[in-house]
Fold:
Amino acid sequence: MSTLPNATASTVTIGKNETDHLALLAIKSKIVHDPQGVVSSWNESLHFCMWEGVACGRHHRRVISIDLPSRGLVGLLSPYVGNLSFLRVLRLFNNTIQGEIPPQVRHLFRLQMLYLNDNSFQGEIPVNLSHCSNLRYLGVSLNKIVGKLSEELGSLSQLTHLIIHGNHFAGKIPQFIGRLASLKYVSAASNHFTGSLPEALGQLKNLEVLAFGSNELSGTIHPSIYDLSFLTVLSLSGNHLHGTLSPSLGLMLPNLILLQLRGNKFTGPIPLSISNCTPLKNLDLGENHFNGKLGTNFGGLQNLEEISLYMNNLGSGEPDEFSFIDSMADCSNLKALDLPANQFRGLLPDSLPKQLWSISSLSISLNLSRNQLSGSLPLEVGSLKNLVELDISENWLLGEIPNRLESCTSLENIYIEGNFFNGSIPQSLSSLRGLVNIDLSRNKLTGQIPRFFEHFSLKNLNLSFNDFEGEVPTGGVFANASEISVAGNNRLVSYEMLLKATDRFSSANLIGVGSYGSVYKGLLDQSETIVAVKVLNLQWQGASKSFMAECKALSRDGKIPIPGGSPPHPALFMAGLGTHLCKWGGDGDCI
Structure:
């Protein structure tokens, strides 16, 4: 054990448990910042067993627990912690404790719970931690720990929780892990483990959680993994695993709540037996190479909340391509359905108005983007009143945007770009004041840009490459060029465009002066159209009325002579610095 510092006169009076008393003072001395005044209260006014965060045994009055999570503590963990020989629980998670885990922890042979998660510990896990033979919970996640898992840790026969995610562990997953027969929970994501999943994992018959996501693992899922029938979480996303999944996966792992294999290289069909995992809440198989028909019967998975199958090669082209949708009607807890970037194709079947849109629990996301879906968006989309995000972009959908979309009052994000939608933007969408991101680009939408967008708190509005016409609004999101895109709409006009066309209303482009204003000649760069722009002085009584009459006259005539012998050309008129615009050859109504 570490040698204790010399006792002062005041500490001698505490009594016979001076070892624990001085060890606590040594721990206090290594804390350099204590914003909540926790350890600063560790003083002689109270017995140390009454200090905040400290608990002692009822009879022997020795320290059995230090419990100081989330206190903002900054400093080091004193090696004198090893002198607290009766310590069973050390909870210091979510602080900023730095340095190495002191090797003196090996003396804590009664230690059962070691919570050092979410700090700034460095170095390796002490090899001699294996002396803590009663250790059940080892938590060092979200630190800066390096190195390999040492062979000696294989002697921790009572260990039930190994929580080491978010560090810099490297090397292969050691075979000795199979000797930790009591393990129920292994969380080792976001490290640098390499190699394959060892066969020894199949020996952990009590295992409930196996999480090695975001590492550098390769190879296939060893058949022994499917023998872990108590697994509730299998999370291996973000690795380089390949091969096919066992057709019996759902039969052998019936207790799965989370199946997360996203971001690997798996191929083949998604096992039909997944329908046997009745507790399943999250099915995340995106970013792989799964292919073929999605024939899963989701009807029995009534706990299912999220399905994510994006960026695969799913789809068969068969007439009953979407039969799996029918079974989702019974998934009353489904909140997110993400199927983008697959090979689903063909007309949206009747079952999709009647079934998919009736899943009122969909609240997070409905994503069918980047497939080859055709047909129109059914009116039943309005049934998704709790939906936050709708993404049907990059398909072959057509028709008008349904007015019923106004019923989706929780919508924040709408993405329908890259389709063949036509018609105008429904005025009914003005009620969706919670919208944040709207992308309607690359369609065949027409009409004017609704001014109600000016009153939305939008972060992004993309209307580019449609056939909108008239004036571009100037308020709200339209005042920030980085948040709005209207490129590729050649019939749109903005005040900035007219400034450029007339060289900022240069006198060189002045072609006439009338009772209420002046007329300038200009050239619109995008369409190379010559325009006449009339600037009115709206302070003159009758200017606005005269402008309206002139618009109607021009709409009947269709042309305006440009002084200087130029032939007639289409023209645009502006009143009051862009507040009124009238298109030559239109219906005479001002925008």
Residues 543-557 form the longest helix (15 residues). Confidence is low (pLDDT under 50) at residues 2-15, 554-591. Residues 75 and 97 are 5 Å apart (CA to CA). The longest strand covers residues 517-524.
